[in-house]
């Protein structure tokens, strides 16, 4: 069995984006279309909206019948649907976002998380292999590092057992995809690890739209700013950090989307050396056309951390008014700081995050203020 070439132009390349109607997925589709790729979105809309797909078309200047973008409402667990999609489209590479992602929910619904995230990826990979598509970018998470052994975290940092089923699925899937290459050296796998994507497209048309009360800091702050929630809880102000609050790595979702697109150039042998840099990376023998084989692992981030209060104050600047917050006791398991080093992504992918915290918050506010009820907002 062969594998599709990625040593060709974007215009000749079809990318299947699972979870492409979601927060990161929709922004990645915009960037792919801007580069000239043909895109097929597969999303079951369990945690997303078809409105996002419609707005992506608007941002990209596409009509509903433009063949450069196709959308299928389907689960990656649905083998029959995937078979039909791969038969209808000559898919060259997969960017895989689809998966349940709420940490707290995963603790009370482990079966659902393991079934959807693990089994779904196995079905996806099997159908893709049957259609000679063995190129996959897995949108993983820096949660696989657990409590890191050093800061900033490089790709040489050992992984530790995650503390929740969501994190476990990321760790397991990284191993599964690595094993696919070990068992069949035609596979071309990239694992991308990152922490906290925030921000929104500069148009204000697409952004993060969490169900219910947000689990993550920035969307919670945004909903307090717009008046949907009363107060931000700050868990701990006695950490050994400049202002006493926890420090984390935040990345603009557009920068993150561009990182996923940059991975395609690397997989096609167009940038970087392809050397095995970092724990778990494997440099295989490239195809005759230069398409890479192996497992590439990259951290994506800004390389600097921002505290909880940094985020709140930056958002105050963006929205033009104070945001109420309350200091609360530390949460069990939280650590003082957590952020990644991204030198490998710079040298191998040619990728560097462009946007700072102020820009992240300004774009988030534009989205939230224009869409207070997310994609349910009546325009």
Question: Helix coverage percent of residues?
Answer: 25-40%
User: What is the number of helical segments per DSSP (H or I, 4+ residues)?
Assistant: 11
Q: Quickly name the level 1 CATH class.
A: Alpha Beta
How is the main sheet built? 8 strands, mixed
Q: Which regions contain 5 or more consecutive residues with pLDDT less than 50?
A: none
Named at the architecture level, the CATH assignment is 3-Layer(aba) Sandwich
Structural class, by secondary structure, is alpha/beta
Number of domains: 1
Task: Sum up the structure in keywords.
single chain, alpha/beta, Rossmann fold, 8-stranded mixed β-sheet, 15 strands, globular
Can you tell me about this structure?
The chain is an alpha/beta fold and 379 residues long. The chain has a single domain (11-373), classed as NAD(P)-binding Rossmann-like Domain (Rossmann fold). The protein is built from 11 helices and 15 strands. The chain has an 8-stranded mixed sheet with strand order 3-2-1-4-5-6-12-11, with helices on both faces. Strand 2 (38-43), helix 2 and strand 3 form a beta-alpha-beta unit. It is globular, with a radius of gyration of 20 Å. It starts with 13 loop residues before the first strand and ends in a 9-residue tail after the last helix. The mean pLDDT is 96.
């Amino acid at each position: 069995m062969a594998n599709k070439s990625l040593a060709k132009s974007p215009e000749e390349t079809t990318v299947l984006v699972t979870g492409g109607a979601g927060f990161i997925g929709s922004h990645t589709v915009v960037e792919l279309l801007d580069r000239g790729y043909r895109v097929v979105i597969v999303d079951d809309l369990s945690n997303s909206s078809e409105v996002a797909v419609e707005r992506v078309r608007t941002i990209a200047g596409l009509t509903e019948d433009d063949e450069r973008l196709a959308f299928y409402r389907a689960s990656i667990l649905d083998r029959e649907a995937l078979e039909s999609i791969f038969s209808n489209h000559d898919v060259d590479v997969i960017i895989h976002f689809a998966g349940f992602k709420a940490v707290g929910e995963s603790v009370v619904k482990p079966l659902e998380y393991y079934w959807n995230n693990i089994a779904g990826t196995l079905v996806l990979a099997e159908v893709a292999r049957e259609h000679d598509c063995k190129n996959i970018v897995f949108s993983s998470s820096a949660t696989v590092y657990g409590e890191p052994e050093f800061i900033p975290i490089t790709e040489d940092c050992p992984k530790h057992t995650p503390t929740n089923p969501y994190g476990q699925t990321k760790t397991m899937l990284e191993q599964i995809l690595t094993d696919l290459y070990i068992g069949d050296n035609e596979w071309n796998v990239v694992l991308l690890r990152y922490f906290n994507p925030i921000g929104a497209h500069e148009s204000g048309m697409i952004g993060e739209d969490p169900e219910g009360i947000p689990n993550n800091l920035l969307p919670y702050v945004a909903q307090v700013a717009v008046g949907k929630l009363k107060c931000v809880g700050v868990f701990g102000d006695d950490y050994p950090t400049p202002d006493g609050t926890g420090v984390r790595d935040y990345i603009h979702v557009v920068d993150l989307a561009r990182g996923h697109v940059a991975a395609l150039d690397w997989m096609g042998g167009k940038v970087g050396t392809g050397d095995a840099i970092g724990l778990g990376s494997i440099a295989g023998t490239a195809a005759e056309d230069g398409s890479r084989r192996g497992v590439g692992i990259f951290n994506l981030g800004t390389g600097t951390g921002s505290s909880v209060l940094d985020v709140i104050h930056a958002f105050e600047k963006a929205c033009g008014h104070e945001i109420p917050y309350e200091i609360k006791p530390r949460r069990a398991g939280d650590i003082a700081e957590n952020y990644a080093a991204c030198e490998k992504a710079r040298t191998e992918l040619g990728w560097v995050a462009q946007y700072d915290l102020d820009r992240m918050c300004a774009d988030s506010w534009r989205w939230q203020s224009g869409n207070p009820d997310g994609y349910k907002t009546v325009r």
